[in-house]
Amino acid sequence: MTIRLLTGITPSGTPHLGNYVGCIRPSVADSKKPDTESFYFLSDLHALIKVHDPERIEKSRLEIAATWLACGLDPEVVHFYRQSDLPEVPELNWMLNCVSPKGLMNRAHAYKAKVDANANAGEDLDVGISMGLYCYPILMAADILIFNANYVPVGKDQVQHIEMCRDIATRFNQTYGKDIFTLPEPLIDEEMAVLPGLDGRKMSKSYDNVIPLFEGGAKALKEAIAKIVTDSKLPGEPKDPDSTALTQIFDAFATPEERAGFRDQLKLGMGWGIAKEIVYEKINKELSPMRRKYEELMGEPEKVENILAEGAARVRPLADALIKECRDAVGLKRYVPVAKAKPEKVKKKTKPSFKQYKEGDGLFWFKLNDADGNLVLTGGGVASGQEAGKAIGKFKTEGMKAFDGMTLQLEPGITEEIIEEIRTQMVD
Ligand code: TRP
User: Relative to the CA of 320, which of 54, 88, 274, 381 has its CA 20 to 30 Å away?
Assistant: First the structure.
């Protein structure tokens, strides 16, 4: 069975090294696995929660799309699209809203952090909290469930959202008594899902501690690494490798042997300056071919646009099919013509009847049909039509005797009694 893998990245800023290590690089690697159908998208609807600056959204969408492509995402192999190009996502979002308990959203980390910050600042608890932020996990669930993804590669900070997605999917399935949604699993690289920033806290724009991925080129990379916080031990003094984020950042790009070597060197007194030089060289070696590709794409935005539009066109039929199932499940089916019972054909009660005709031989003949129109008798063979007509007239009162002296042939299975019965029907 093909495994469906899906992940989104929110274009709210310029991609940094943390995005690369925590999301882009593992996702690109995963996308190359056999038997995997991968969905990668720009969660630009999510971006509207945090960013109300349209220019920044536009810039970030392009930068992030170019970044993923430069980092090796192959749009021929994976589905690469923008969330906002799929109107099915907000439609599913609404249906999910209607089964998602408010209490579940109250427990979301991102929301709780805001409430706590408001409490600490002595503010009203709701200050600065939009419904978009509050319902963020439900939109994310829609992203995942619209394609019934099996695995979602995410940072540790997003694991709660996947759990909420499972919860919401289960409720929907149970509410409507249908197994429409598959429950997704988070896929976390346990070792280093969250890359620390310059100051050791999670690398994040909001902490202003990021190392840019491509922006500013090699020079900016070098300058940012120089700013990673260390203690003030001098070269030659033994150092604690875990006293700085530098080691963890190096780890994210190094083999196990290189990691061990780096630690040993620090313990033996390697200076921070040299250590930073090693880290820069290591990272730059991995990034520089990608940086060239990135710059190329940034110079051709229409190329990126076409790739994303094609990606959306490819997945929309899947989204459509799922939405149809959901609509049917919740009671938003399309009306179909109600099958009207056809009135029973009332059988016309016809009477048995004679038909007269002249044959090619010049003789006159007649046929008798019963009330259902079946031929029962052929007779005649007489020289005049009048003679035949008279005999037919007499049949009503005299029965078969009226045809004495004429050629007469009863159809198979027809007896004189049946003819007699037919005659009485002709009379009354
Ligand atoms: N919330 C994710 C982030 O900020 C982005 C995202 C949106 C996402 N929808 C998703 C990730 C669905 C995985 C699956 O990084």
Answer: 54
pLDDT band at 157 (very low <50, low <70, confident <90, very high): confident
Q: 114 alpha carbon to ligand 1 midpoint, in Å?
A: 19
Q: What is the pLDDT of residue 191?
A: 53
Look at the pTM and tell me if it is higher than 0.85. Answer: no
Please tell me the residue having the least CA distance from ligand 1 atom 15.
9
Q: Is the CB of 154 under 6 A from ligand 1?
A: yes
Are 364 and 382 in contact by the 8 Å Cβ rule? The answer is yes
312/303 Cα distance (integer angstroms): 15
Instruction: Kindly report the protein residue whose alpha carbon is nearest to atom 6 of ligand 1.
Output: 8
**Among the ranges given (125-129, 301-305, 346-350), the one the predictor scored with the smallest mean pLDDT:** 346-350
What element of type H or E holds 281?
helix 272-298
Confidence of residue 13 (pLDDT cuts 50, 70, 90): confident
Residue 109 alpha carbon to ligand 1 centre in Å = 14
CB of 8 closer than 6 angstroms to any ligand 1 atom: yes
Determine the distance separating the centroid of ligand 1 and the alpha carbon of 180, expressed in angstroms. 21
DSSP state, residue 213: S
Q: Tell me, using a 6 A CB cutoff, whether residue 140 lines ligand 1.
A: yes
How many angstroms separate the CA atoms of 78 and 366, rounded?
81
Per the CB < 8 A criterion, the answer to whether 276 and 226 are in contact is: yes
Q: Is the confidence at residue 115, as pLDDT, over 90?
A: yes
